């Protein structure tokens, strides 16, 4: 039962870190042109 006192806060911190990383990626424009990257491999350079 004591392990829950460690695992619950640890999981909350992990979820907050994942949300922060996703927010950072969206804020920095990582998902602006998703289709462009898919089409880039089809084009001949």
From TrEMBL:
Domain of life: Bacteria
Spans traversing the lipid bilayer: 6-26
Keywords: Membrane, Transmembrane, Transmembrane helix
A Pfam family hit: FixS
InterPro entries in UniProt: Cyt_oxidase_maturation_cbb3
Signal in keyword set: no
Full protein name: Cbb3-type cytochrome oxidase assembly protein CcoS
Organism, scientific name: Comamonas terrae
Gene designation per UniProt: ccoS
């Amino acid at each position: 039962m004591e392990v829950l006192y460690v695992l619950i806060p640890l999981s909350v911190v992990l979820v907050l870190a994942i949300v922060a990383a996703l927010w950072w990626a969206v804020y920095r424009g990582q998902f602006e042109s998703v289709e462009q990257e898919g089409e880039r491999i089809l084009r001949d350079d």
